Amino acid sequence: MSALGSLTVVGLGPGPDRWLTPEVADVLASATDLVGYGPYLDRIPQSFHRRHGSDNRVELSRARLALDLAVSGRKVALVSGGDPGVFAMASALFEALESGDDPAWAEVPVRVCPGVSAMLAAAARVGAPLGHDFCVLSLSDNLKPWEVVLKRLRLAAEADFVIALYNPISKARPWQLGAALDTLRSMKDPATPVVLARAVGRHDEDITITTLADCDPATADMRTLVLIGSSQTRLLPRKGTDGLGDVWVYTPRSYTAEVP
Amino acid sequence: MSALGSLTVVGLGPGPDRWLTPEVADVLASATDLVGYGPYLDRIPQSFHRRHGSDNRVELSRARLALDLAVSGRKVALVSGGDPGVFAMASALFEALESGDDPAWAEVPVRVCPGVSAMLAAAARVGAPLGHDFCVLSLSDNLKPWEVVLKRLRLAAEADFVIALYNPISKARPWQLGAALDTLRSMKDPATPVVLARAVGRHDEDITITTLADCDPATADMRTLVLIGSSQTRLLPRKGTDGLGDVWVYTPRSYTAEVP
């Protein structure tokens, strides 16, 4: 029987190499096997790794494969975009471990390495919209009832959190973002700033700054991160030569609104 | 009059250099001036920078100094720990810009570079507690009424979000964490996992995994990030040799609880 390998869950950051931490670069350099969603693995330079790319939406089987490889003695990097702990592979890995389907899995040395998450990169790109209390939701109802999503959106609006939405829309979930925006429109100022940040940091990055009233769900796709302001989120004129538009979006540290 | 400089807001990540992005390393290497909280500047190797360290809780004057230096032609890095957009210097900078106290500030080229935030590093260290919908609050009532904090905690508990608390306690704010925990105890299962992650990634890192019932506020200080689970957050046995205890904390991607 071969010696036990290891399993490290890493995040590449949402965009280019300049957001990939030295820690993750080291893990990738010493891994024998890379397991992950194909487009993420494509961002890692060719080397002597064995690559195990897979389709989206098969996170659990990907986690099981990574554990099997580690049991067989391989040094495995399980690869997420962004941060692996935010709607990504780390939870899928622990779900597989909890299932205990193979008792050998429990012996694998596991480590999780943080990364720059898409929400942080999107926020930095447009200013500082997450500068005050905020919440983070996946809009996917594949793994939770849609009623839970709606309830959380209502409570988040009542709390006047800035709201970051992951997985806003896909071909299989075409109406959820529109329904979420309708719910928020019934509770929040129509002039609330909304940011649609698609593929932040990538060559095909596309950032739209709009309002809750004007936000068109068709502008978003599965690579879009949506940020919806609180009552305090505001726009400022932006001077610059980086082609990122003429406004900053930010939320002040102070909260001066009335408490309802 | 000298040529205009520039101002880049950066985050060092919460811990060691292995969490500092290449983008931020480049900014620091080419900056002429570093402005920030003294202990953060101490983490940057000595070089030819001019250093402008300052005490905690003077974010706005720090932002003004950075703008003044940039107007005078310096290439300024305004330094946060963690990510600069999460309860850190980016919002303070935009507050200064919005005040418009010096019209010259509006001409300064500004950029924000994301970093690994303390909550992501703390989460990775203990597993994947942020693997499902969550919210992020500062517990400081320096800049918002305490009633707003309490209201948000109640709504976050009702939404069954995982909760990340920044700035949980300080010498000037000794009772707030205890009051916040009492509020959450009145609404949540006493067995809910709680993580107190102090100085994550630093030489004096100290991580406590406990429950809502047993959590002692005196275990936390101003360098502690507090994570409070949802109804779904759970513990798993942890095997490993890294001295980080014998349990993982994680929140599954699926939400299977009843909708109240």
Give the topology:
Two copies of one chain form a homodimer.
Chain A lengths: L5 E6 L10 H9 L2 E5 H4 L8 E5 L4 H13 L3 E6 L8 H11 L10 E3 L5 H9 E2 L5 E5 L7 H13 L3 E5 L9 H10 L7 E6 L7 E6 L12 E5 L5 E4 L9 E4 L10
Parallel strand pairs in A: 1-4, 1-5, 2-3, 2-4, 6-13, 7-8
Antiparallel strand pairs in A: 8-11, 9-10, 9-11, 12-13
Helix pairs in contact in A: 3-4
Domains counted in the coordinates of chain A: how many?
A: 2
- The number of strands of chain A is 13
In whole angstroms, the N-to-C terminal distance of chain A is 65 Å
Structural class of chain A: alpha/beta
Note poorly predicted spans of chain A: none
Per CATH, the class of the largest domain in chain A reads Alpha Beta
Mind describing the biggest β-sheet of chain A? 5 strands, parallel
What would the average pLDDT of chain A be, to the nearest integer?
94
Architecture of the largest domain in chain A, CATH level 2? 2-Layer Sandwich
CATH topology of the largest domain in chain A: Methyltransferase, Cobalt-precorrin-4 Transmethylase, Domain 2
GO biological process, one term (chains A, B): cobalamin biosynthetic process
Pfam families (chains A, B): TP_methylase
Protein name (chains A, B): Precorrin-3 methyltransferase
Domain Tetrapyrrole methylase (chains A, B): 7-214
